């Protein structure tokens, strides 16, 4: 009996090693590390979920089962912290491990689910769910589904339909709710049925200055641009000031700033007074002056809205 048990344990250990070797998890997580700077707590949690799914698959192969794991999630954090990107990768991981049929992501907001008149919400919500089946439904700013101050609001109807599907078809659909942390906490407090169906709560921290600078370098490299020495120092100063503005959106604001720097870079080259031939370095180098023209530098007292329009 003991010998048989030892053989079984050896076989399971061998199978786990084989599963790990054949698993796409490490490859996908490596891609995630390459694509996203920072977010260590988020990546750790994603790795834990992927490990659980891998082990559950192996447990099933030897007749052990705890039932299908609940995979509905809540992503909380400020804008531009990578929630949608992580949701895309989560859909891919779930598909590659066999937990969803298609692995696609359907991203929606309240407007895609809630109608404006009686009888409109149910078909809208069901159509979205139909499109999302076999994959992941990502609902951004999910707390807007619930508006208790408006007695004629139809968001509660959408929530009830979602709750039913999340429970009855959780083996064919994963729902990720996303939004600001404090608002999501209130949403779950007011909707205990939704809270009880969410198994994984993942908080996305804001990026530090050095992480945002690394993100900027990565964005520019993908577009075949680079920062000069002065450009890098200027961008670091820009990030420090921009982060202090209340509408700062992390990587999203950095992308917007780089887009505007590229416009200034192009205009600078086109209007050069010397008319000298342009080199490859000229065409790809963002200088400090391309960033210092931002209102973030020109006027500290500028309104946040103005800073975002011309950052």
Give a description of the structure:
With 311 residues, the chain is of the alpha/beta class. The chain is 59% helix and 9% strand. It is built from 16 helices and 7 strands. A 5-stranded parallel β-sheet has the order 2-3-4-1-5, with helices on both faces. A two-stranded parallel sheet has the order 6-7.
What is shown here, in short?
By secondary structure, the chain is an alpha/beta fold. The protein is built from 16 helices and seven strands. The relative contact order is 0.11.
Helical fraction: 55-70%
Computed CA radius of gyration, to the nearest angstrom: 24 Å
Spans where pLDDT lies below 50 across 5 or more residues: 301-309
Specify the number of helices: 16
What is the rounded distance between the termini?
A: 72 Å
Based on Cα principal axes, name the global outline: globular
Q: In terms of structural class, how would the helical and strand content be classed?
A: alpha/beta
Q: Approximately how much beta-strand content do the residues carry?
A: 5-15%
Largest sheet: 5 strands, parallel
pLDDT averaged over residues? 88
Number of strands: 7
Order of helices and strands: HHHEHEHHEHEHHEHEHHHEHHH
- Largest sheet: spatial strand order: 2-3-4-1-5
